[in-house]
Amino acid sequence: MSAAFIFKIVIVLLLIIILFSLTSGMIFLVRDKGQSDRMVISLTLRIVLSIALFILLFIGLRMGWIQPHGIYPEQPDNNFPETERALPEQRP
User: Fold this and answer.
1) Which residues, 6+ apart, have CB-to-CB distance to 32 below 8 Å?
2) At residue 16, does pLDDT exceed 60?
3) How confident is the model at residue 15 (pLDDT cuts 50, 70, 90)?
C-alpha cells in the first residue's frame, strides 16, 4: 500500500474516533448531570484529536499525499492544445 492510502485511512480513523469522543461527551452530559469530569475529559480528548487532524492534513498536503480541489473541479477543455489553453484571449 502507498503512503497516501495509509494516510487517508489514518485520517478516516481519526474522524471516527473524534465522532466517538463527541458522542461519549454528549452521553456523559446527559447521564452524569455535572457530577463527574468524564464529559470534560471526553471533550478535551476531542479537541486534541481535532488539532492533531488539522496538523495531519497540513502535513499530507505538504507531502503531496492529498490534493485540494473544489466541489466541482474544472474539466480541461480537450479541444485545444495545452499552449492554447493557457492563453484563452488568443483563441479565434
Assistant:
1) 38, 39
2) yes
3) very high
Identify the pLDDT of residue 71.
76
Beta strands in the chain (DSSP E): none
Residue 21 lies in a domain: yes
d(CA 38, CA 61): 35
Q: Which domain holds residue 15?
A: 3-66
Q: How many domains does the chain have?
A: 1
Which residues lie closer than 8 Å to 11 by C-beta, 6 or more apart? 53, 56, 57, 60
Asked whether the beta carbons of 67 and 7 are under 8 A apart, the reply is: no
Contact yes or no for 11/58 (Cβ under 8 A): no
Nearest to 55 by CA among 1, 6, 4, 7: 7
Pairwise CA distance, residues 12 & 6, whole Å: 10
Residue 60 maps to a domain: yes
